[in-house]
Amino acid sequence: MKKSLLSALSLGAVAALVLTGCSAGGADTESKTIKVAYQKFGSFVQVDAHMKAVKKEYEAKHKGVTVELVPIEAQENDYATKLALMNKSAATAPDVMYEDTFRVQSDSDAGYLAPLDDYTSKWTEWDSFYDNAKSAGLGSDGKTYGIPMGTDTRAIWYNKDLFAQAGLPVPFEPKTWQDVLDAAETIKAKLPDVIPLNVYSGKAQGEASSMQGFEMLLYGTKDTLYNADSQKWVTGSKGFRDSLAFIKDVYQGGLGPTPEQALDKNVGNLVSGEWLPQGKLAMGIDGSWLSGTWLEGGTAPWPEWNTVMGQAPMPTQDGGKPGSTSMSGGWTLAMGSKSQNKDAAWDFISMALNKDNSQSYDIAASQIAVRDDVSKDPDYQAANPTFGFFSGIVANTHFRPATSDYAQISTAITVAMEAVMTGQQSVDDAADAYDKTVVGIVGDKNTESAD
Amino acid sequence: MSLPTLAPTAKRPGRDETPRPGRRPRRGARRSLVRSIPLLPAVVLLAIFLLGPVISSFYGSFTNASLSGSTAQNSNFVGLDNYSALFADPDFPKSVLLTLVFLIASAIVGQNVLGLGLALLMRTSNRLVRAIVGTFVVTAWVLPEIVAAFAAYAFFNDTGTLNAMLSAVGLEGPNWLYALPMLSVILANIWRGTAFSMLVYSAALQDVPTEITESAEVDGARGWQRLIFITVPMIRRSISTNLMLTTLQTLSVFTLIFVMTGGGPGTDSSTLPVLAYQEAFQFGQLGFGTAIATIMLLVGAAFSIAYIRALKPEVD
């Protein structure tokens, strides 16, 4: 009896020890280490290389401070999930993080990010950043939460050799969606082993589906996703249905990859690393950064890429003004609100994005520069022959709705895309389901029906 | 069954339910309280690691908590909103149906029947066959779930082992994971889980006295009659225990499905755990996802109660 009491007590004590051991996590060493979280996935290794270089430079300059790199190997949406989960607890929250511009608002509303205005006001280099790039890092309260690293535009990449073999004119200058589909039909008929056209679609590709895929179509119709003037989300628009119908035509009409290829989380890596370099894909709606994979130091170096690959602006639906369309996004470096050492975190951010480091990153990752001094630098301009083309289409580019609901609505778009590409729902049913989801997310009063 | 069993109401000597004269009942109560002290650590641990999450899951399902956005730091109590949205969502009944199909086909039928069959066959086979078959079956069970899931993915993949084997004999297999996602994950789960049922049944079959089967044989009972009327009734308790364990295990299968099909294509293999994950972590709706998890909890509890009830009259 006494013995069992004793053992019970000792068991309890052991349990208590274990439990306290779990919760206490070396809080006093925190301030000497800053944690930097970023994405590293498949062919996307440029941020990793950049962070490693900056870590070396930073630790040499700030003796005694250790930079702990936390590369998160996950596809874009999984990266965002993992980052949000890390940010929920002070024990795991990073000091500096690689943050997509479209998540800055929702993550700052969530209290994950720290405002940077006190730092930027004293940072002389802040004036070198373009104003529209600065506004991409603003939270809904108007404060700056992210320092932009670069921006991007999107267009059609096409393989000139395959186009020539199929008897299609080079350069390819589509004026309407139909021109794009016609070219794809020709390739399908002439070159049956080649995938004619890749448009990212479905839940697995997350934001790439909604932005590179769907919004490249929708913003080329007469409709839009979000009415910025009335601040309401648009439901029931014809443009939305037409865009879904385009996706359906590509996937159900055999003009794209098979739906199961497109629903593989790896398809982005396959497109840049294998399908395009190996001549297995004729056209892809993709980003300005694509060539970063093929440069020396990329994951799939391809010296001939610039002679083989051409770029064409994405046409509007019927060739209506302004003739072409594009989408722009970009990524920032942001500071975690739970950071124990905000000054050190800021030093890291400002070093990572000073003139030289911004420039080396923009060149390595094929980013459109957001700093005036970088984009005017002759070394930057000479570094990649496509910079001229992709900077040129900035005139007709669009930005995603800057609201914190966008991230959830974006996933609703990918659900509708997946439903039509697999043939599980008709275009109308998928569009109706999307409308219902949007009302569910933002409420009836924040939506308006298109005419 | 003509086995002599103790009537459930029979009292054991010494275990008195009525207090002995001259002894106050309070003392007995205090004694049993003191005697249960050694249980305390276990109870505390259970409360922290099981009851805690269950309660927080219940509470979370009544809030609009999300992964990002303003509701991530200030979530509100929204009552039954998540549940009413869930029942209005066409994905939900589909997911419940898929879960039931997965459960019945892979656990209740597949693993149990195959496990019992293997156990029966192994009892009558020689030692070498037993060792070889046993090793093969148990290997799937020994593999960590993620490894087993990748192995199944490699097997069922469009260019995977299965289709390579089929094309070797001149057949063209379908793209299993895309065209027949539920069949693929069901087969994979049977492959992975049968070993457990087989081991449980092998142990149970060893307890069936040979005299009884032999006497049935003398009375002229054929093989299947001996199985149905002698063996199965005698291992009934093992069957219900095994059914309960495999049911609960299969209800919570996530990794296998997520790796093989990701719940797709579309929602064609989104069972409840996959749906809960998608809503909570891919779409960021923590509250909504938690509501699905809570429903899963209730389904699991309902099954356990049913099985425990089925076990009860057999207590001896």
TrEMBL record, chain A:
Source organism phylogeny: Bacteria, Bacillati, Actinomycetota, Actinomycetes, Micrococcales
Record-linked Pfam families: SBP_bac_1
Provenance organism: Agreia pratensis
Name of the molecule in the record: Carbohydrate ABC transporter substrate-binding protein, CUT1 family
Keyword presence, Signal: yes
Signal peptide boundaries: 1-26
Keywords linked to the UniProt accession: Signal
Superkingdom of source: Bacteria
Statement: the UniProt record of this protein carries the keyword rRNA processing: no
UniProtKB/TrEMBL annotation, chain B:
InterPro entries: MetI-like, MetI-like_sf
Keywords assigned by UniProt, alphabetized: Cell membrane, Membrane, Transmembrane, Transmembrane helix, Transport
Region (Disordered): 1-29
Compartment(s) where it occurs, according to its Swiss-Prot or TrEMBL record: Cell membrane
SUPFAM superfamilies: MetI-like
Transmembrane segments: 33-59, 96-121, 133-156, 176-201, 243-263, 283-308
A GO term from the CC aspect: plasma membrane
The name this protein goes by in its record: Carbohydrate ABC transporter membrane protein 1, CUT1 family
Organism the protein comes from: Agreia pratensis
